[in-house]
Design brief:
Radius of gyration: 25 Å
CATH architecture of the largest domain: 2-Layer Sandwich
Number of strands: 11
Low-confidence stretches: 221-226, 279-293
Number of helices: 9
Largest sheet: 8 strands, mixed
Helix content: 40-55%
Structural class: alpha+beta
Mean pLDDT: 85
Order of helices and strands: HHHHEHEEHEEEEEHEEEHH
Strand order of the largest sheet: 2-3-1-5-4-9-10-11
Shape: globular
Distance between the termini: 17 Å
CATH topology of the largest domain: Alpha-Beta Plaits
Length: about 350
């Protein structure tokens, strides 16, 4: 079975390489971009396949020599090759596990202060800055769509943005002594994060007749136009009751465009959730269900640690969690280890689901 998978990887990777060098593909921006994404997706698996071929060759060579007579050094080489083969087979299967179809999309992130009063709003702002720094480190572009005390909506653009930030959806709990706490007592506060894959116009059909669009005067910072023109926009999608408001831009048109983008993403996320629930009643979307109220990660300031509760995501046993002791680095935007751990857990869960199907 692994032999046929390796052959499939080699054939698909060779085809991707050929497309990248094809003048017709190069001249077509969309085809070249698609070929590039396929090449980048297959490159790690192709490298593992090459290592597997080498390990198999080493094992066969060692077995041939051992057939002529026992040799401790050659026996050790055979055992090493067999161990490499076993490890590489698992890594190859994980590398080729079926991907989330939204992985390549841009994302819209919404952060809201939860339990904890003013401290929850401050914590929401800390998360907002953390994600912006992380996006910048990865070479993505973050654009703020709306921001106020304890509430932030922003877009992160870049290939594979959803594959990185989708694990952030849920309730983030912080344990620390607030600046306003005179007795030095540790408080627990929360903020909720929703991560929505950006939807294209063709993916979500919105009937204009289903929309109620209200305009009103903006409030808060914004320059001379504030409270003098009806630039703020509120869009209500009547069939679902979803409401989106935007007022940060001075132009009513810009606020309307941003509100429609967020509305489209929310409706797309709801559509995907319905499809998932129809396919598997026991699998729930992390955003917009009861699971969202559960903590997915705890940030403990006194102990300078970050604990991700993988079990609450359905990616491992219910009690499973992983802890890192680099809180300052994480808040500064270094979430690479956390993301890599969750990506690996997701791949293993998908591999298990495929084996059971």
């Amino acid at each position: 079975m692994i032999e046929s998978l390796v052959e499939q990887i080699e054939a698909r990777f060779a085809d991707a390489q050929a497309q990248m060098a094809d003048p017709e593909v190069i001249s077509d921006r969309q085809r070249f971009a698609d070929a590039g994404r396929l090449f980048n997706h297959l490159a790690p698996a192709a490298k593992l396949a090459e290592e597997w071929r080498r390990a198999v060759s080493d094992a066969e060579g060692a077995e041939e020599l051992l057939a002529e007579g026992e040799d401790p050094e050659m026996r050790a080489e055979l055992n090493d090759a067999l161990e490499r083969i076993e490890r590489l087979e698992e890594e190859i299967r994980l590398a080729m596990v079926e991907r989330d179809p939204n992985d390549e999309k841009n994302v819209i992130v919404e952060i809201r202060g939860g339990a904890g009063g003013d401290e929850a709003g401050i914590w929401a702002g800390d998360l907002y800055r953390m994600y912006n720094r992380y996006a910048e480190r990865l070479g993505y572009r973050a654009e703020t769509m709306a921001a106020s005390d304890g509430s932030y909506t922003f877009e992160i653009k870049g290939d594979g943005a959803y594959s990185v930030f989708k694990f952030e959806g849920g309730t983030h709990r912080v344990q620390r002594v607030p600046e306003t706490e005179s007795q030095g007592r540790i408080h627990t506060s929360t903020a909720t994060v929703a991560v929505l894959p950006e939807a294209e116009d063709v993916e979500v059909e919105i009937d204009p007749n289903d929309l109620q669009i209200d305009v009103y005067r903006s409030s808060g910072p914004g320059g001379q136009s504030v409270n003098t023109t009806d630039s703020a926009v509120r869009i209500t999608h009547r069939p679902t009751g979803v409401v989106v408001s935007m007022q940060d831009e001075k132009s009513q048109l810009q606020n309307r465009e941003r509100a429609m983008k967020v509305l489209r993403a929310r409706l797309y996320e709801a559509k995907v959730r319905e499809q998932q629930e129809a396919l598997s009643a026991d699998r729930k979307s992390q955003v917009g269900t009861g699971e969202r109220a559960e903590k997915i990660r705890t940030y403990n300031f006194p102990q300078r640690r970050v604990t991700d509760h993988i079990g609450s995501r359905g990616l491992a046993s219910r009690e499973a969690s992983v802890t890192w002791h680099n809180l300052d680095e994480v808040l500064a935007g270094s979430l690479d280890e956390i993301t890599a751990t969750l990506q690996d857990a997701e791949k293993r869960k998908r591999l298990e689901d495929q084996a059971e199907a």
